[in-house]
Design goal:
The complex is a heterodimer of chains A (361) and B (357). In chain A, 72% of the residues lie in helices and 2% in strands. Chain A is an all-alpha fold and 361 residues long. Chain B is mainly alpha-helical. Chain B has one domain: ABC transporter involved in vitamin B12 uptake, BtuC (Orthogonal Bundle), CATH 1.10.3470. Chain B is built from 14 helices and 4 strands. The chains are: A mainly alpha (361), B mainly alpha (357).
Chain lengths: 361, 357
């Protein structure tokens, strides 16, 4: 029975998701026992008179949107290049400042200017990510080192574009994008996550990109000998990450209805890498599951919200977060996994022996 | 005649870093950037960046072993905070108080080093994640100790305050002030400690078995294992050393600026990584040199000082300049190494052709 179960897990690929799912369930159970009202969802009326859903769960899913989107892109880069991009926050700030710059060239935000701004935002993020991608794919530099350049000067570039001011945005379109669309009670950023998820799922469903990315990540030389172009695959992963970063930047700008080059998507690179690792992906590249990274993003956000709900001071959240992260990664570590397998094998062998002995009798 | 051995990759990259530093400093002296004509400026760079030099060594050792440690900045902030609270609260108002604070600093560093090293080498968890958690933990513990800045002053611990004011004075490198008095060049104790750390870690990596083993496991873990090197223990010890060094860096930081604060050494881990890379350490492991990292840290410090001293006194320019500098070095290294590889491959091919004939 147990053997069947493990082969089922392997076949469906759910084995990799075992740790994140368990962590999520434990966090949910913990909250259920601690305070069942944590899960209550109410319909409230917001400032502009729309009825919206409110409650801790909605907050978690809403606030994790930017992180979830970036974690998806980060998974691809990790899988193809065997390293992480630490410049996502800085590139997000650059893309966000172009976004605001375009919107600010007109008096009011109209649908036309919004479309233009979205296109420019995505193009900017993709262009800067192509810079990273070129360093990694063509010049064969470790991703973390290559992205350290934009990490250290990206926010200064954003400052250069916007000037020292923090431009404010207003208008119904910004509110619809950052908060809720009138008539729909669910926050819009959640739809953005779903949209990006569907686009990526379609790409991987309709093309061989998943196989190509994994083979480049596992063994670049072998992939090349099989007719896959590793340079192109790596660049493509950075382009997709750029699109994800642009979406995350727009979510961040529209939610705050302003742009601050210092705080937009700040420290998100670390959380995104954590999300990828918690999702059971190997940070050394190769096989990946985007669903795991998304789950990792929600786990991180749920952890933060839970700690806030337990009245932990904002500045101390990091310490508790670190402890939970260590527990999760220790549970998912290869050594512990091997130990558990060997233990279960031993128990099974013991049972077999006793049943065999019974048969002899 | 004996054929000259070609430089190894490590030596080549380090040499480039040293040349660039010398060139940059010379330009600053000739240009002239205000302050660079005095020798004291060189010592000031050492004094202000002693902690950065120490953690650059810590990071180089880990990176040569094929790992990474981004918790160093957090450990510094935790050490500075813990030591300043200790010094303010202790009844040991004498030299023993300072020694106890030093042991507290080293103990915190050791605890982080041992914990992270165990998780990374014996439980085989990815170093980036473990040390990221270490960074969160140390920063969180710092704010748990105190959210407000904690200042060690002459009133709270007179002996420490006097001790940190000690400076080594070198008269012949000094300059003559406008009123005709000779002002000797001053070097702080922290800077001497930093230089000692550079030399000791250089000797460790070069002549001690442990150091050679660190190069081996970073270069190729499989071959190191087959040579009979205890890979796990070596990796564990490399993290222990880097933890100890970050504790020491925290104490040096406290001697330079005796105030515990949550934002102490913010992002310094990234500066240290940049310094190591500029100095020729590769993140892939097996290649690197702490002397290079020292010059990497000094290059970063010099460019920031030049911008600070020029009329462009703006953090914006400093960020842009460090980014551009880093980009330049990374590209240079990539080009130099790939050219060498190509040339070597060609030479090997021609050798093979000769053998076939």
């Amino acid at each position: 029975m147990a053997a069947k179960k493990s082969s089922f897990l392997k076949k469906s690929g759910l084995g990799q998701l075992l740790i994140p799912i368990t962590a999520l369930v434990i966090l949910l159970l913990f909250n259920l026992i601690r305070d069942p009202s944590f899960f209550s969802i109410k319909v409230a009326v917001n400032n502009s008179g729309n009825s919206v859903l409110s409650g801790n769960l909605i907050t978690i899913i809403d606030n994790a949107s930017a992180l979830a989107v970036i974690a998806m892109g980060m998974t691809l880069v990790t899988a193809a290049c065997g390293g992480q991009d630490i410049s996502v926050g800085a590139v997000g700030a650059i893309a966000g400042s172009f976004f605001v710059k375009i919107l600010k060239s007109w008096e009011t935000v109209t649908a036309g200017s919004m479309i233009l701004a979205i296109v420019v935002c995505i193009l900017t993020a993709v262009a800067f990510m192509m810079f990273n991608g070129t360093l990694v794919a063509v010049f064969k530099i470790q991703p973390m080192i290559a992205t350290l350049i934009l990490f250290s000067c990206g926010r200064s570039i954003a400052y250069w574009i916007t000037g020292s001011a923090t431009p404010q945005l207003s208008g119904p379109i910004i509110q619809a994008m950052g908060m809720t669309i009138p008539g729909i009670p669910i926050p819009t950023p959640i739809f953005a996550v779903i949209l990006v998820g569907i686009v990526l799922a379609l790409i991987f469903r309709l093309t061989n990109l998943r196989l190509y990315t994994q083979s480049v990540g596992v063994n670049q030389g072998a992939a090349r000998l099989n007719g896959i172009n590793p340079t192109a695959i790596k660049l493509l992963s950075f382009v997709l990450l750029g699109m994800c970063v642009a979406v995350a930047a727009m979510i961040g700008v529209c939610r705050m209805a302003q742009l601050s080059h210092k705080t937009l998507l700040v420290d998100i690179e670390m959380d995104a890498i954590l999300a990828v690792a918690i999702g059971g992906n190997n940070l050394g590249g190769g096989r990946f599951r985007i669903a795991g990274s998304i789950m990792g993003a929600y786990i991180i956000q749920m952890l933060t919200t839970t700690l806030y709900a337990m009245n932990v001071a904002t500045v101390n959240v990091k310490a508790y977060k670190a402890i939970v992260i260590i527990i999760i990664v220790v549970a998912g570590s290869p050594v512990i996994k091997n130990w558990i397998t060997s233990m279960t094998n031993k128990i099974r062998a013991g049972k077999m022996n006793t049943s065999a002995a019974k048969g002899v009798e | 005649m004996k054929r000259r051995e070609p430089l190894t990759n490590t030596q080549l990259l380090t040499t480039i870093a040293i040349c660039i530093f010398v060139a940059m400093y010379a330009i600053a002296v000739i240009a002239p950037v205000q302050g660079f004509e005095k020798f004291q400026m060189f010592f000031d760079l050492l004094n202000d960046n002693a902690y950065l030099i120490i953690i650059s060594c810590a990071l180089s050792i880990v990176m040569i072993g094929g790992g990474i440690n981004i918790s160093v900045g957090g450990v510094i902030s935790l050490t500075v905070m813990a030591c300043s609270l200790f010094l303010n609260g202790t009844s040991l108002q004498n030299g023993f108080g300072i020694v106890a604070a030093l042991f507290l600093a080293l103990g915190i560093g050791l605890a982080f080093g041992v914990g992270q090293g165990f998780l990374i080498s014996y439980l085989e968890i990815q170093p980036f994640i473990v040390t990221l958690a270490g960074m969160f933990l140390s920063r969180g513990l710092t704010t748990m100790l105190s959210v407000e800045p904690v200042k060690v002053s002459a009133q709270t611990h007179a002996v420490f305050y006097a001790f940190r004011g000690n400076k080594i004075e070198i008269p012949f490198l000094g300059y003559i002030a406008q009123n005709g008095n000779m002002i000797p060049a001053k070097l702080e104790i922290g800077a001497v400690v930093a230089l000692a750390v550079v030399i000791l870690s250089f000797l460790l990596l070069r002549y001690v078995k442990l150091g050679r083993n660190i190069y081996a496991i970073g270069g190729n873990q499989q071959s190191a294992l087959m040579l009979g090197i205890n890979v796990k223990r070596t990796r564990f010890l490399s993290y222990v050393i880097s933890g100890l060094l970050s504790g020491l860096a925290g104490f040096v930081f406290l001697m330079h600026k005796p105030t515990g604060n949550a934002s102490v050494a913010m992002r310094s881990e990234m500066d240290a990584i940049a310094a190591s890379i500029i100095g020729g350490t590769l993140l892939t492991g097996g290649v690197g040199n702490v002397v290079g990292s020292f010059f990497g840290a000094m290059i970063l410090a010099t460019i920031q000082k030049i911008i600070g001293m020029s009329k462009l006194n703006d953090s914006w320019w400093q960020d842009m300049a460090s980014g551009a500098l880093l980009g330049f070095f990374i590209l240079l290294q990539s080009v130099v190494l790939s050219e060498r590889d190509k040339r070597r491959a060609k030479r090997n091919d021609s050798k093979l052709a000769v053998q076939r004939e």
